[in-house]
Amino acid sequence: MRLTERPRRLRRDGLRDLVAETTLRPADLIAPVFVDATADERVPIESMPGHERVPVDEAAARVREITDTGVEAVILFGIPESKDPEGSRGWADDGVVQRATRAVAAETDATVVTDVCLCEYTDHGHCGAIEETAASDPTLTVRNDRTLELLRRTAVSQAEAGADVVAPSSMTDGMVAAIREGLDEAGHEDVAVLSYAAKYESAFYGPFRDAADGAPAFGDRRHYQMDPANGREARREVRLDADQGADVLMVKPAMPYLDVVRQTREAVDRPVAAYQVSGEYAMLHAAADRGLLELDAVALESLLAIRRAGADLILTYFAETVAPRL
Ligand SMILES: [Zn+2]
Predict the structure, then answer these.
(1) Domain limits of the chain?
(2) Which residues hold their Cβ within 5 A of ligand 1, which is an ion?
(3) 247 and 192 in contact (C-beta within 8 Å)?
(4) In this predicted model, what pLDDT tens digit does every residue of 112-133 receive, in sequence order?
(5) How far is the CA of 115 from the centre of ligand 1 (A)?
(6) H or E element that contains 158
(7) pLDDT tens digits for 22-53?
(8) Closest CA to 45 of 293, 282, 275
(9) 204 CA from centroid of ligand 1 (Å)
(10) Would the pTM count as exceeding 0.85?
(11) Measured in angstroms, how far is the CA atom of residue 56 from the centroid of ligand 1?
């Protein structure tokens, strides 16, 4: 038999890289950093090996460790000194993320992305203002339109502190438009909006909630985050955020939602981001700890797969360990 097609020809060393369709560079990655206003020293995060909460005065040092690996961007999450029903430490001038952002902007070359949400700052742990009567009602819905004003304040105060990019993650309807308008009115036309456009109500977020102390005190987030059953609906969410002026559109989580990453890539002509979440990170670590998988190899392959699905940039807890090997 005479074979006319021999794909194996191009898999030889020396040819493989020439025909590689997808690449992964340190500059494609954004590393999450947890800054804790209640900590005096670095505290390891049990469920996320290699990650820690750092005090505000160590935020810049922590970010420098990351940029030393070649990663150029970080996303800051804050654990405030106190919480209240509206999450007012989220937009405080001397809030934990604002202080950390000022330090990181002044002392490093990192591109600073800040997470815009209220769940880390509210005493009930939901991503916005809730009805007072709903304080123990597990079926509550966060007050969408009241929350818009709080998100807008938060984003503007982060921009004032020096954030390059703000990343609204609360799945509040209209959040991108409200934030864009607030930023423009405050003279921050150049601050970009990276929207968590299709964020699912996922069980893969578990370890993050340890890290950022952000579990809801009651109920869950299924009334505002997306149903894992829905793919078409993600198209709508992405379109709405693009129309409202989002500069980058994100899908979260990544690996269980690669179909959504791909359709987002095809639907819009803007950069697409994917968030490889804490549960994705923790499960690869757990499997490696048991000797079932080789950690470095699966970390790299998982990131390459997310890029191949269509993500331009990836938020990942592997950023710092993978970057030096690229
Ligand atoms: Zn939230």
Answers:
(1) 22-325
(2) 117, 119, 127, 170
(3) yes
(4) 999 999 999 999 888 998 876 5
(5) 9
(6) helix 144-161
(7) 999 999 999 999 999 999 999 999 889 999 99
(8) 282
(9) 15
(10) yes
(11) 21
